[in-house]
Structure formats: C-alpha cells, structure tokens
Write a structure and sequence with these properties.
Radius of gyration: 35 Å
Structural class: mainly alpha
Largest sheet: 3 strands, antiparallel
GO molecular function, one term: zinc ion binding
Number of helices: 6
GO cellular component, one term: U2-type spliceosomal complex
Strand order of the largest sheet: 2-1-3
Keywords: Metal-binding, Zinc, Zinc-finger
Distance between the termini: 84 Å
Shape: elongated
Protein name: RING finger protein 113A
Low-confidence stretches: 227-248
Order of helices and strands: HHHEEHEHH
InterPro entries: CWC24-like (IPR039971), Znf_CCCH (IPR000571), Znf_CCCH_sf (IPR036855), Znf_RING (IPR001841), Znf_RING/FYVE/PHD (IPR013083), Znf_RING_CS (IPR017907)
Number of strands: 3
C-alpha cells in the first residue's frame, strides 16, 4: 500500500494554464541557433556602423559588413524565416505528420489483373480507380457531373472472368494476340516470343515452357465480346522464324 502526504493546498499540480502555453524546445536553444547568431551580427554591425575600427575581435560571425545586402538570399531582415542557416522550428506547435507513400495496393494486380503471390499477397488486390480533379471539373463545366449511365450492368464483372488478367504481365499493356503457357500464365504473343529468346522458362513462375504457347481462347473470346480486333495466332510459324521450338 502506498500513501502520500497532502500538501493541503487547493491548487492543481502542474502548470496553472494546464499546459496551454507550453513550448517544445528539443533542438538548439533559441539564444544559440542560427537566427539568434544572425540577429546578433546585425545588431553589432549597426552599433559599429560609421565608427573607426577598434581592433576588437568579436567572433567569426560578427565581422564588419561594409556592404549592406538587400532583398537577396542573405538579406538584412531578421525574422522567423532566417535567411542563413537552419530555420528555427516553431516552439508552440506539437504536430505529428505521416506522409502516406504506402497505399498498400498490389501494383501487379492493379496493372495486370494477376499477382504471383495469389491469396497470400500481403497487399490489397484492388483494381478500382478514382477520377482526377480535372476530370471532375470538366464534368462540372459540361453539366454531366453526377449523371448516371444508361446501362446499369456495365460495371458488373462476370464470375467466369474473375481470374483472367486484363493486361500482359511483361509489357503491362492490353493483350495483343494473347497466348497461354502450360503453367496457365497469359502474355502477348510478341512479348512471349521475345522473352523465349532470352529464357525458355516462364516469365512469372520460372517453370519450363518447352516452347509451348497456345492461343488464349478465353481471353480472345472476351476481347471479341468487347469489340476488340483479335488476329489469328500462328505460333508455329512465329517460333520457327525466331529460332524456337515448335508449339502446339
């Protein structure tokens, strides 16, 4: 058991204003920082202005300034924004700031619709996006801001296409002549052939492809449904011309 002896006073402990005027001084003392040195040099130069040199050394910061600078980076004004040295931090503010450069969104999934880590990825698999400020302003000027589209089903996602990427993992662009490897990874035909010249393994999982690149029929059918133009794949001829193996 702990007991304390009363001081028999009605006043509260701590500052009487409950710390409303408390200051935070964790850096150089205000009397010794760059602004104080700058102001002291101005004061000494003002006192010695027009007087004969008395041969007294007053420190390296207090040499006589015979040319008075104005409106420059080292101006003659002394203020909170000291022109020379570190700026004095405000002593009456206690702020905590965190710059969020970590959106924690999976970049691969957002850009391509595929992530090699799958469900074990620690970042958020989100492909949603927001309009820029200039886009909103343009809609306001055109009078279309807040208007709903005529087709209420255009944002619905088909469950069959949930696992299909919508962009090539190599070039990060929309698929052009999409192909699929034996390990079920999708690329553009041109990107897959270019990578095959460097390595015969899959760009994503590093498994051996054996030069087998089949047309990605599910993505092709989806692109046709969107009205995109899809050319017929000729993997065997492409692989033969690039010095690769025959494909199925």
């Amino acid at each position: 058991m702990v007991s304390y002896k009363s001081k028999r006073t009605t006043g509260r402990e701590g500052p009487s204003d409950m710390g409303a005027t408390a200051v935070l001084q964790i850096e150089t003392e205000a009397e010794k920082d760059a602004q104080a040195i700058f102001e002291n040099a101005l004061r000494i130069n003002k006192e010695l202005k027009g007087k004969e040199d008395d041969k007294v050394y007053r420190g390296m910061n207090n040499y006589a300034q015979y040319f008075e600078k104005r409106d420059t980076a080292q101006g003659n004004a002394s203020s909170g924004m000291v022109r020379k040295g570190p700026i004095r931090a405000p002593a009456n503010l206690r702020t905590t700031v965190r710059w969020d450069y970590q959106p924690d969104i999976c970049k691969d999934y957002k850009e391509t619709g595929f992530c090699g880590f799958g469900d074990s990825c620690k970042f958020l698999h989100d492909r949603s996006d927001y309009k820029f400020g200039w886009q909103l302003e343009r809609e306001m000027q055109e009078g279309t801001y807040g208007e709903t589209d005529n087709d209420p089903h255009q944002y619905e996602v088909d469950s069959d296409s949930d696992d299909l990427p919508f962009k090539c993992f190599i070039c990060r662009n929309t698929f052009k002549d999409p192909i699929v490897t034996k390990c079920q990874h999708y690329f553009c035909e041109k990107c897959a052939l270019a990578h095959y010249k460097k390595s015969t393994r899959c760009y994503i999982c590093n498994n051996q492809t054996h030069g087998v690149f089949n047309p990605a029929k599910n993505i092709i059918s989806k692109m046709k449904g969107d009205g995109s133009t899809v050319t017929k794949l000729d993997i065997v001829d492409q692989m033969a011309s690039s010095g690769g193996s025959e494909s199925d």
